[in-house]
Amino acid sequence: MIFNIYLTNLLKAFSLALELTDGGLSRHHWRTAMVADRIGGQIGLAQGPRQNLLYAALLHDIGAASRWDEKNSLYSHKPITDLYWHAEEGYRLLVDSPLFKALAKPIRHHHDRWDGSSPSGLAGKDLPLAARIINLADTFEVLINDGRYILDQREDILAAIVRHSGSQFDPDLVEALGEAAYKDSFWFDLATPHYFDHFFHSLQSHGQVRLNIDGLLGAAEIFATIVDRTSRFTATHSRTVAAVASFLAGVKGYSDTETKIMRVAGLLHDLGKLTVPNQILEKPGKLTPREFTVIKQHAYYTHRILTQVDGFELIAEWAAFHHETLDGTGYPFRIPPANLRLGCRIVAVADVYAALREDRPYRPSMPLSDVEKIMLDMAAARRLDADIVHTLFAAGDTVEEILPGTCPA
Ligand SMILES: [Fe+2]
Ligand SMILES: [Fe+2]
Ligand SMILES: [Fe+2]
């Protein structure tokens, strides 16, 4: 299996997951990245730093993604208690990643003020250039009102930015933004959803970074961490599913690369959970029917985000069809059993196993003997693939030994 995944394409898709709220998919990171890139072009930024600027802009609020309240405040103009918390959290998520460590500092300082009055104390050109650009592009983007004709907003938005030149923003960059915004087309591009595809595609056509499977695993690990942090009950859920699913893939004769792809699918299977408010994920009592439908939408969003990545078709299926069943009544696509690939059925088994072995708000972790009984019953009712369930329990202790966290016996 040959991998041909562009990092830009991957981050373009994954950045959608960062701002998933009850409004579904929005475009804050895309638009911030586009404005940042225009500023970078205006000041003649070289290709390497301009590429990193784009990646950092696409991920800039990554530290807020696990917290529903935090991201809702960021995108709905509500006052936010601590503007710097999510920036620091973003830094911590990325600083040890071989692929993303260059983005950690720009993200850490993306709300730092030019005048040095932010908690870091850094001022002026001591702040990373990419951080100064993202600060400006991010504020600019939040000022755009999608309900108003874009050119009617031009003067007000530019005036609001200029007012903070030299205090919040680097004055040279404010000037560069003003020059880029001189063209009407700059504004029309911001207001034309289809333009984004053209923008990102044009970036990919000139020598962008391509990922191998290990790079992809590194990126998937970070997003798995974000998803698992949405609830203290799922602290290792995605990693457990990844470990069990890749183990089963190995037993079923998948190649080394396919087994790694299975790990990626396991790490990302619940990506769409970022659309579910933390209060629902952590609710101790019984869920209302409405809350349950909100939970169920996660598999839909996992699929819709992953299919945005060219070359991810198989990963999207393996990851997102984990609640589809062999009687055709699963969700959210009600896939007919004949179309449910082995890889999807493996992730489904791994997911149920992981969930039953973990504590939940409404019950403690279950002992292995109970887990086995429940899963055999589910297989008999065609909710899970019987052959894979038997493979799992035939492996005995081996499975428990590969789990990332400690489960009670
Ligand atoms: Fe931010
Ligand atoms: Fe799920
Ligand atoms: Fe899951």
Termini separation: 38 Å
CATH class of the largest domain: Mainly Alpha
Question: Superfamily at the CATH H level of the largest domain?
Answer: Hypothetical protein af1432
CA-based shape: elongated
Number of helices: 21
What string, H for helix and E for strand, traces the elements in order? Answer: EHHHHHHHHHHHEHHHHHHHHHH
Q: β content, as a range? A: under 5%
**Oligomer designation:** single chain
Helix content: 55-70%
Bound molecules: fe (ii) ion
CATH fold-level label of the largest domain: Hypothetical protein af1432
Overall mean pLDDT: 92
Outline the biggest β-sheet.
2 strands, antiparallel
Q: Indicate how many domains the architecture comprises.
A: 2
Strand order of the largest sheet: 1-2
Derived structural class: mainly alpha
Q: Which blocks of ≥5 consecutive residues have pLDDT under 50?
A: none
Tally of DSSP β-strands: 2
What does the radius of gyration come to? Answer: 23 Å
Return the CATH architecture of the largest domain.
Orthogonal Bundle
Index terms:
409 residues, mainly alpha, Hypothetical protein af1432, two-stranded antiparallel ribbon, elongated, binds fe (ii) ion, HD_domain, HD_GYP_dom, HD domain-containing protein, HD/PDEase_dom
